[in-house]
Amino acid sequence: MNPGRRGNGASCLAPGRREQDRFSALPGYASRDPPDRAVIPPAMKIPLLPALAFLATLSAAQAAPKLNGFFGDGMLLQRDLPVSVWGTAAPGEELTVSFAGQRVSTTTGADGRWLAKLAPLPASAESRDLVVEGNGTATVRDVLVGDLWLCSGQSNMAFALDSLKTHPKYGADLAAANFPAIRQGLVKREGSLEPLRDAQVSWAPATAARVGPFTAVGFYFARDLHRELGVPIGLVLAAWGGTSINPWISYDALAADPALKESADRQIADFKAFGPRAEAFPGDLAAWEKRTGREDAGPADLAPAQPATDVSAWPVFKPGMKWRQAGLPNGGVAWLRKDLEVPAELAGKPVRLDLGSISEQDLRVYFNGTPVFANSRKPPGFYSGYQNFTVPGDLVTAGHNVIAFRYRTSTGDTAPSGKSVRDSGLIHFQPTGLNDEWRVFIEREFSPLAAEDLKSMPKIPPGSSLSGTSSGLYGGMIHPLTPAPLKGVLWYQGEADGSRGVAYRALLPTLIKDWRARWGQPNLPFLIQQLPNWAAGGAQTTGWAELREAQALTAARIPGVFLSVAYDLGESGNVHPANKRDVGARLARVALANVYGRDIAWRGPVRTKSEPQGSAYRVTFESTGTLRTRDGTAKPGGFQLAGADQKFFPAVAEIDGTSVVLTSREVPAPVAARYAFINDPVEANLTDATGLPAAPFRTDDWPVSSSNRK
Fold first, then answer.
1. Which helix (H) or strand (E) holds 133?
2. How far is it, in rounded angstroms, from Cα 435 to Cα 303?
3. Nearest Cα residue to 705 out of 502, 495, 420
4. Phi, psi dihedrals of residue 400, rounded to the nearest 5°
5. For residue 469, what are the contacts with CB-CB under 8 A and spacing of at least 6?
6. How far apart are CA 81 and CA 116, in angstroms?
7. Which helix (H) or strand (E) holds 472?
8. Claim: this prediction has a pTM higher than 0.70
9. Cα dihedral 681, 163, 472, 108 sign
10. Each residue of 566-613: pLDDT tens digit?
11. If you write DSSP's letter for every residue of 181-208 in order, what string do you get?
């Protein structure tokens, strides 16, 4: 191999799929309502009597009332509250809505829209029809009445039960699903800056044949509620992977805060300007690369990707290292390679690999010498963003396998990926794993960049999708649902905002206030799923801990908002942990205790008092019985102490009834304590008789990493 050798490169590779690409947004500005009248071409020749019959049929079809897309066969209506039924028909048309013995009349407005309200209905698992009669008839069949929960957020809420079908622990839950009184309404992923009126929802029961697309968290939540309450449970899933909280909030709510308005206006302007910017970007970048000597035609030699190539002399590369640490101080082209030992039972099975967020201009991946992935320079994400792909099963062999990455980077100041390479599928390369040491080979080093060249490097234009634009998802996916009464909301989101926890303290309350007002339910319960553990950006850093703190502060300050703690249910190397069963079960406990008034334990220990005691520090908890550890160890882990210098060190913790006494040799005069206040608090194991984890906390109010991030 010649590190300086260049050639025409490998054959064209399929571009990678980013999370936002899989669920691309639609503008949604055009009305989806049917035209007021059909047009028959004048040249069409139809005999008189058949023509009259045809026109009569056409007239009836034109005038038939149309229900909003929220209404569909197999749906569920909220019990014990007035139920809105709405849609479109001919202006001025008189309509009758019939359901469960009720008949309610209404008249279509001049805009062709109508709304009727049914009186509160008791829960019922009886399959009944909802009928709207006017000049024609519209019927929704197999309608149940129970409790309807909106499930929203990002990918861990959207995580489908079907993703667990091959999992050895959870896969059986799909095959055993037989809950016809649990229904899910799946909201079409669609963005719009204008609030849409018509929802697009598809309904299905939680039976083995149809439960696969259910939100896994929502399914387990609904299953436990249904078993405990004995009433039908409905889920409305409106979630979108990779999204921050801003797109889920209405523009009016964001505009009420000057700081949030500034950000929203900028994002909306970027979205509207994206097209021309995206068209110009590839050419601008190519010209810059040519001018600065950073062009690359692809690999001339694929030996680094071949399993037979001896790489024992290649230097070691550790995850998290920047390119300058690997020998590319000014950027260049490099290979990262890892040998994998695959057990025989996994041979021939496809493996999904999640690379996290990639910021390099070119990345090509080879498995056993065969190209399996390449990022691209196509909009919307061009070469950057969340990347994942699947290694075909026919490439996965028992025993020795090789995965090789060829990167091109313009500077030495970036890392190969924004997050560690991880196997996020259900098939794991164990015990080798993907997050330990790799081998690195420098194919080509670029010359240093002049300051003006670095400054002039074209940046990927922002605003590629409404899913990343303030209010863009509220308009398309939330606003159309607001006439339908709800029992409550499950909110599982925050991963995308893990670097701006302090800003989230204002954003999450804004969303809650906004949605409650839009639904006209000022006390609408919100169940917040706190982020689990994950070694994002480093296990000991605090970005996700700061986001968890914002979630906890919101629950503590706003009535009717409740928090479910789950830092013990994640996977350090996987942003999409498989254990959605316990997440859903804990949320169900939160709901049963706080929404349904059941006398059950729903949270673990919560700090109530903290005070220095000489060289020690005592933390007192509200708990159910005496404190203990989940794993039976004598001393709980996950505590830290700091003195006046604001430097935190691990603390030795001793349980004393409902208190924990902390000491540290490095902190002789402690003034502040923290518990589970890192991204991946795997050592945090404090609990009580409930078995639920103690809530994370910090006693200080010192600046944190997200203090100045908007």
1. strand 124-133
2. 23
3. 502
4. -75, 125
5. 191, 193, 246, 247, 267, 268, 270, 271, 463
6. 14
7. helix 472-473
8. yes
9. negative
10. 999 999 888 899 999 999 999 999 999 999 999 999 999 999 999 999
11. EEEEEEEP----SSPPS---EEEEEEET
